[in-house]
Design a protein that fits this description.
Layout: H1 2-9, E1 24-28, E2 31-34, H2 35-40, E3 51-58, E4 65-72, E5 85-88, E6 101-111, E7 120-127, H3 138-146, H4 149-154, E8 157-168, E9 173-174, H5 201-214, E10 218-223, E11 229-238, H6 241-260, E12 262-265, E13 280-285, H7 287-290, H8 294-307, H9 309-314, E14 338-340, E15 347-349, H10 351-356, E16 361-363, H11 372-385, H12 390-400
Parallel strand pairs: 3-7, 14-15
Antiparallel strand pairs: 1-2, 3-4, 5-6, 6-7, 8-9, 8-11, 8-12, 8-13, 10-11, 13-16, 15-16
Helix pairs in contact: 3-11, 5-6, 8-11, 8-12
Length: 404
C-alpha cells in the first residue's frame, strides 16, 4: 500500500512494492494497480454457479485451526448439502502415518468475508473412516449433551468473552511494546484511545466487521487491561452454536492477523509479572435461571460447579495455572469461590441478577485457549444433568453460604 501511495505522488519512481509478493503495473499516468489484489477481489458470481467452500477444523493441539478449500457446484444453505471430505491426519498430529485418513463432517456454515459472493466457511468436526469421533473431536460430545431432552428444554444461553494478545512478528513481544522493554504500568490501556495507549485497533475493527459479515453473533469488542491485548464477545448463543461461532471467529482472527503480519496468541499468561492474563469468561443461563425465582436456580448451579471444580479446571485450558493466581482479577486455581460483582471469584453474579432475582452467572475460570465446546458442554452437564449426593450438597452449601 505504501508503495502505491508513493507512486501516485512521484510518477518518476520505479514501480516497486513494499513486499516481495506484490506485483505492481502502471495503469495510467496517475495510478497503479495491484494485479494480485485484482484477482483476489474478483467476483466470479456472474460467470459461474460454482462456489468455494473453506473447510475448517481443529488440529492436534486442540487450539490450532486448519483449513483447505474445495469447489462446490452451486451455492448451499445448509451443511447437509455439503459432501464429507478427508485430510492427512498424520500431518496435524491426529492420526498415524500408516492410517492417516481423517474424515471431515460439515457442521456449520458462515459467509466468507475474504472471498465474498456466495463463498462459505464450513466448520467441521473430525472422524475415523469408520465413523468414530477422533480424540480431539470435542464437538461430538458437546452435541450429545446439548441434544439431551432436559438440556434442550432449558434452552442454555452462552455469552463468551474471548481475550487475545497481539504479538510482534519474529520477536515474540506484544504489539506496541518497545522491543526488549516494557510500556508504562497497567491503568491507561483498558478501553483506551490514543497512539500511546491503544495498539491493534485496526485488527480488532477488521475482525469485528468480518464476523458480522460472516453471520457470527458477535456482540462487542474492547481493548483490554494489558496493552496489546483485546477482547471480543460472542452471544447470546444457544447450545452447540456457541462453540461453532467462537471457533469461526478465531479462524477469522487468525486470517486477519496473518494478513497484517501480526501474530495472534491465546496464551493465558503471555507476559510474566504484573500484567493481566488472558481469559475466556463464559456467561451462562438456563430458562429456569431467566424466569422468576431464577436466583435460587443459579445458586444450585453454583453449588454443583463447586463440587466439580477440579474437573472443570482440568478442562479449562493449558497453562491456566499461570493466570489463576488470585491476582489480576482472578481467583486462585486451587479453590472455588463465588460472589456478587466480584471479579476475584471463580463465579461472578451481576448486580442486576441479584436485584432482579433472575439472570445469569459468569464463569471466570476458563483460559483464553479453552475449547468452547468443552466449556459450554461441561457447564450444561454439571448444572443440568449431574446430581451430587445429598451429603456433598449439604457440605458444599454450608461452605459456600448458598442458603439452598
Amino acid at each position: 500500500m505504501w508503495g502505491s501511495l508513493f507512486l501516485k505522488q512521484n510518477k518518476k519512481a520505479p514501480a516497486r512494492s513494499s513486499t516481495k509478493y506484490r506485483a505492481l503495473a502502471v495503469k495510467s499516468e496517475d495510478g497503479t494497480i495491484n494485479r494480485m489484489e485484482d484477482l483476489l477481489n474478483l467476483d466470479v458470481t456472474p460467470y459461474t454457479d460454482k462456489i468455494i467452500a473453506e473447510y475448517i477444523w481443529i488440529g492436534g493441539t486442540g487450539i490450532d485451526v486448519r483449513s483447505k478449500s474445495r469447489t462446490i457446484s452451486k451455492p448451499v444453505e445448509h451443511p447437509s448439502e455439503l459432501p464429507k471430505w478427508n485430510y492427512d491426519g498424520s500431518s496435524t498430529g491426529q492420526a498415524p502415518g500408516d492410517d492417516s485418513e481423517v474424515i471431515l463432517y460439515p457442521q456449520a456454515i458462515f459467509k466468507d468475508p475474504f472471498r465474498g459472493g456466495n463463498n462459505i466457511l464450513v466448520i467441521c468436526d473430525t472422524y475415523t473412516p469408520q465413523g468414530e469421533p477422533i480424540p480431539t473431536n470435542k464437538r461430538h460430545k458437546a452435541a450429545q449433551i446439548f441434544s439431551d431432552a432436559k438440556v434442550l428444554g432449558e434452552v442454555p444461553w452462552f455469552g463468551i468473552e474471548q481475550e487475545y494478545t497481539l504479538m510482534q512478528q519474529d520477536v515474540n513481544w506484544p504489539l506496541g511494546w518497545p522491543v526488549g522493554g516494557y510500556p508504562g504500568p497497567q491503568g491507561p490501556y483498558y478501553c483506551a484511545a490514543g497512539a500511546d495507549k491503544s495498539f491493534g485497533r485496526d485488527i480488532s475493527d477488521a475482525h469485528y466487521k468480518a464476523c458480522l459479515y460472516a453471520g457470527i453473533n458477535i456482540s462487542g469488542t474492547n481493548g483490554e487491561v494489558m496493552p496489546g491485548q483485546w477482547e471480543f464477545q460472542v452471544g447470546p448463543s444457544v447450545g452447540i452454536e456457541a462453540g461453532d461461532h467462537i471457533w469461526c471467529a478465531r479462524y477469522l482472527l487468525e486470517r486477519i492477523t496473518e494478513q497484517a503480519g501480526v501474530v495472534l496468541t491465546l496464551d493465558p499468561k503471555p507476559i510474566d509479572g504484573d500484567w493481566n492474563g488472558a481469559g475466556c469468561h463464559t456467561n451462562y443461563s438456563t430458562k429456569s435461571m431467566r424466569e422468576e425465582g431464577g436466583f435460587e436456580v443459579i445458586k444450585k448451579a453454583i453449588l454443583n460447579l463447586s463440587l466439580r471444580h477440579k474437573e472443570h479446571i482440568s478442562a479449562y485450558g493449558e497453562g491456566n495455572e499461570r493466570r489463576l493466581t488470585g491476582k489480576h482479577e482472578t481467583a486462585s486455581i486451587d479453590s472455588f469461590s463465588w460472589g456478587v460483582a466480584d471479579r476475584g471469584c471463580s463465579i461472578r453474579v451481576g448486580r442486576d441478577t441479584e436485584k432482579e432475582g433472575k439472570g445469569y452467572l459468569e464463569d471466570r475460570r476458563p483460559a483464553s485457549n479453552m475449547d468452547p465446546y468443552v466449556v459450554t458442554g461441561l457447564l450444561a452437564e454439571t448444572t443440568l444433568l449431574w446430581e451430587p449426593t445429598l451429603e456433598a450438597e449439604a457440605l458444599a452449601a454450608q461452605k459456600l453460604s448458598l442458603n439452598v
